[in-house]
Amino acid sequence: MMYCEEAISLMPACLEADLGSKAPAFQEHIRICSSCRRKLKELEESRLLLSRQRDQAYNAPRGLVQDVLVRLERERAIRSNRTFALQVVGWSVLILSAIHIVFYRVFVAIGDRNRHHP
Ligand SMILES: [Zn+2]
Questions:
Q1: Structure pTM?
Q2: Which of 63, 94, 104, 114 fits a 20 to 30 Å CA distance from 18?
Q3: 62 falls in which pLDDT band (50, 70, 90)?
Q4: Residue 117 CA to its chain's centroid (Å)
């Protein structure tokens, strides 16, 4: 059983959907206590109003910043993909030339042996 004091102290967490294990007791208190239910509703409404005003005030610059951040992130992802592709190509070339050298040596050795011991 939760008391009004605790329920009221948990209201901000409730609005953030951050109640954790206290959620059931809190919900139960809100269900049975009309005073806290009213308080929670008021708090919710005032927060909604506040966040709406804040959104209107900062919407343009925030959108711009987000846009730039998204673009930077995309750019970075493309660049690291390119680096990865270059690394793959580099390693392929290295491995192929290593195989080439090995085969070349083998052929030369075979050729030498054939020449010396026909
Ligand atoms: Zn209450």
A1: 0.45
A2: 63
A3: low
A4: 68
